[in-house]
Amino acid sequence: MDDALRVVFEMNASAWTGLRDALDELTEEEIRWQTVPQANTINLIVRHLRIEAQWHLDSLECGKPMPTLATSPSQQAIDAVPEDFQANLKALVLYCNRFLELLRTTKLNTLRERTATAYGEIAQTEGRHYLLGYHHATRLAMHCGQIRSIRNLYRKTRGAPIRFFPDNPTFPHSANNPVSIEKPAGSPST
């Protein structure tokens, strides 16, 4: 592996591992649960990730422009992806693993060229010459956080202990551990 790409590969591999962990042992109810009627479900998030993972793979593998950023996406192609959690998860695994395989063997100059083709003018912005190498990882990490939050909220609404970071001392998890904010001297009390 190109030493200059090792950190990019590790970042992508770590984001993918975190997301896979967040999706481990899901129940059918968790997959479709919404915090409020307007909220995304884990099912919809996985569908979204599956679509974007394919776009990232196509950009790295074939140099295709990134839909929504460098070219208009095909709404027909998007609509053709069903809300089938198992099928979308299977495709997501395939696309992410293939992306990592390609990233492992890509050379730095190839990544820069593929980024320029994938993102067009966006790639010309300072600090984005290798965007294709980290954009996918940031998307995975962001949605991993969403999924973990949904799963923790789902468990809390059922009186179950949270699944992710249950013993983190920086998060008070019960009414027995309230947070109080000291008011400056002379401020009115409420």
Topology, element by element:
Elements: H1 3-22, H2 28-32, H3 42-62, H4 75-79, H5 85-105, H6 108-119, H7 131-156
Keywords, separated by commas or semicolons:
Four Helix Bundle (Hemerythrin (Met), subunit A); 190 residues; single chain; mainly alpha; 0% strand
Describe the protein.
The chain is an all-alpha fold. The chain has one domain (3-156): Four Helix Bundle (Hemerythrin (Met), subunit A) (Up-down Bundle). Helices cover 58% and strands 0% of the residues. The chain has seven helices and no strands. It has helices spanning 3-22, 28-32, 42-62, 75-79, 85-105, 108-119, 131-156. It is globular and about 50 Å long. Mean pLDDT is 88; it is low at 174-181.
- Rg, nearest Å: 20 Å
CATH homologous superfamily assignment: dinb family like domain
Overall geometry: globular
- Biggest pleated sheet: none
Write the CATH fold name. Four Helix Bundle (Hemerythrin (Met), subunit A)
- Give the H and E element order: HHHHHHH
Beta-sheet strand percentage?
under 5%
Cα(first) to Cα(last) distance is 61 Å
Named at the architecture level, the CATH assignment is Up-down Bundle
Runs with pLDDT <50, length 5+?
A: 174-181
CATH class: Mainly Alpha
Structural class: mainly alpha
